[in-house]
Amino acid sequence: MMSDPGTPTLDQLRVFLTVVEVGSFAGAARKLHRATSVISYTIANLEMQLGVTLFDRKTTRKPQLTDAGRTVLAEARMVYSGINGLRAKVKGLLQGLEAEIHLVLDVMLPSARVVDALRAFRETFPTVSLHLHIEALGAVTQRVLNRGAALGVSGPLITNLDGLERIAVGSVDLVPVAAPSHPLASSANAPGATREHVQLVLTDRSTLTEGQEYAVMSARTWRLADLGSKHMLLKEGIGWGNMPQPMVESDIAERRLVLLDLPDCPGGTYDFTVIYRTDSPPGPAATWLIDRFKAQAAQNL
């Protein structure tokens, strides 16, 4: 019994996979533009190299996979798919397409925009690997400046930084909300009422805007590292705060959160900007992403 199988060629695997796909040696011959005898000979050689029988040719008129054949089939598909993927990647590189993209997005960017862009990107550039990072406030810009990401969608850039290109790509509305049980939710509030209650504030983890405050009205604040935690605590009645309107639409509709009437903090607009380093201009795939985010803004997505 053979204990050390040989190494099949890619052509043998292609013939094997084609026979399985079309269900006969004759059908594979027609599809590959070869004689049926050549297909049969190729499969026989493959079986001899591997030391196993791949097809049962005796009990049925059409070749049926044996148990060994089904095992080999799964591996053959993986190998052949991997080779095709390799060739597609190299073809893209030869055409100037990026092998991978590191993209950093502001946490405030609505999920509908993120999903729309990345789903379409996957379909358009199947060979380009994407590394996605989510950051808040100045951390988006810092990651691009530090070359941790080639492309970013940032919130408002408070500081004027050299070496960055900027492209406006729309905005999102921020609205003040709290749980229905919160004292600020009961009625219209007088100016300054927010100062008496805990405000949930997103923390800026970067050094670019360290110490700067964004719509902080209360002397009592809880600083949170991510927007998801802020959203959770708001719904539990632990403080009030501003949130992207699309993220809390369903909560407001179902009364898990309510819009607050705050004369000194009515909410506002949070602008988005695509950024990249001027010394690292975007390639074809990154340029496509920029155009997608611009189109979203034009469509008010």
What can be said about this structure in brief?
Keywords: DNA-binding, Transcription, Transcription regulation. By secondary structure, this protein is of the alpha/beta class.
Would you give an account of this structure?
- It comes from Pseudomonas asuensis.
- Keywords: DNA-binding, Transcription, Transcription regulation.
- This is LysR family transcriptional regulator.
- It is elongated and about 90 Å long.
- It is 40% helix and 20% strand.
- The chain contains nine helices and eleven strands.
- By secondary structure, the protein is of the alpha/beta class.
- It has helices at residues 10-22, 25-32, 36-50, 67-94, 111-124, 138-145, 227-235, 245-253, 284-298; strands at residues 55-56, 64-65, 100-106, 129-135, 151-154, 164-178, 199-202, 221-224, 241-244, 258-259, 268-277.
- It starts with 9 loop residues before the first helix and ends with a helix.
- The strands form three sheets. Strands 3, 4, 5, 6, 9, 10 and 11 form a seven-stranded mixed sheet that branches. The chain has a two-stranded antiparallel sheet with strand order 1-2.
List the defining traits of the structure above.
301 residues; alpha/beta; seven-stranded mixed sheet; two-stranded antiparallel sheet; 9 helices; 40% helix
Number of helices: 9
Helicity range: 25-40%
Structural class, by secondary structure, is alpha/beta
Order of helices and strands: HHHEEHEHEHEEEEHEHEEH
Percent strand:
15-25%
> What's the shape?
elongated
The main pleated sheet reads as: 7 strands, mixed
Residue stretches low in confidence (pLDDT < 50, at least 5 long) are none
Cα Rg: 29 Å
Q: What's the average pLDDT?
A: 86
What's the N-to-C terminus distance?
65 Å
Number of strands: 11
